[in-house]
């Protein structure tokens, strides 16, 4: 049975790890390499395949990439736009596999469906993975969610969906006006209520667990998120969990 390890999720760092037999799939590496060591033992890196899928180039998603590449020698997948930005940062991207949105890629026994996310990166992607009769979707860092993202989530056993801010906390908070405008824009981030509305549309589908992710430490509140998560779990027919920053979660699926 595969396990999803959320090594971190939030405004200061993001990294997800899917552990399978003889394979490790990472989505983003915006944390210290030493935190990766907590889920990836040394013998794993010697005998197992390690894959890294990058969503985009913002620092909270790629800050740990150089030590991770040097230590674990993963196979790396990214969009052309993301790879170009990393190249300008001095990272060797010559061996990266370049992915295009809306195509299906098969790598050994996994299928990967990259899709466009609406965010202010160079060419950001979300991912829908299928393997072992399981499916999981990562849709974070997006200002709004078109219908196809809802469809990917509905087809998944686990969905990872952004729930970045509580609108009133953001509007009344200390962020400068330009940053509030960016977050609220169609290429910014999803609010709690937007995430909850998407969750409601998933009711009656395959999904078993929905993770509210990429939670802002400045513009959100765990108490509010707990109420939303409890409401969704009670009313929508699947378990909903919100992810706290700096906490590891292990979820079998």
Automatic annotation (TrEMBL):
Q: Which SMART domains match?
A: Lactamase_B
Q: Does the keyword rRNA-binding apply?
A: no
Matching entries from InterPro entries are given as: Metallo-B-lactamas (IPR001279), RibonucZ/Hydroxyglut_hydro (IPR036866), WalJ/YycJ-like (IPR052533)
Every copy of the Metallo-beta-lactamase domain together lies at 12-189
Q: Name one Pfam family in it.
A: Lactamase_B_2
Q: Which UniProt keywords apply?
A: Hydrolase
Superkingdom of the source species: Bacteria
Instruction: Give a GO molecular function annotation for the protein.
Output: hydrolase activity
Q: State the name under which the record lists this protein.
A: MBL fold metallo-hydrolase
Organism of this sequence: Flexistipes sinusarabici
């Amino acid at each position: 049975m595969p396990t999803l390890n959320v090594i971190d999720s939030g405004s200061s760092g993001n990294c997800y790890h899917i552990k399978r037999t003889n394979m490790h799939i990472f989505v983003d590496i915006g944390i210290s390499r030493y935190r990766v060591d907590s889920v990836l033992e040394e013998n794993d890196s010697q005998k197992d395949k390690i894959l890294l899928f990058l969503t985009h180039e913002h620092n909270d998603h790629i800050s740990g990439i150089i030590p991770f590449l040097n230590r674990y020698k993963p196979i790396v997948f990214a969009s052309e736009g993301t790879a170009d930005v990393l190249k300008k940062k001095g990272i060797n991207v010559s061996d990266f596999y370049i992915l295009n949105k809306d195509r299906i890629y098969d790598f050994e026994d996994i299928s990967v469906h990259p899709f466009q996310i609406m965010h202010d990166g160079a060419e950001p992607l979300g991912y829908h993975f299928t393997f072992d009769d399981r499916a999981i979707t990562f849709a974070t860092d997006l200002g709004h969610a078109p219908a196809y993202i809802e469809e990917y989530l509905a087809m998944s056993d686990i969905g990872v969906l952004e729930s970045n801010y509580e609108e009133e906390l953001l509007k009344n908070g200390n962020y400068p006006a330009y940053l509030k405008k960016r977050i609220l824009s169609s290429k910014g981030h999803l609010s709690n209520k937007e995430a909850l509305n998407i969750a409601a549309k998933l009711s009656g589908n395959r999904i078993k667990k929905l993770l509210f992710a990429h939670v802002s430490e400045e513009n959100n509140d765990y108490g509010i998120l707990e109420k939303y998560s409890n409401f969704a779990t009670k009313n929508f027919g699947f378990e909903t969990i919100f992810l706290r920053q700096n906490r590891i979660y292990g979820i079998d699926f």
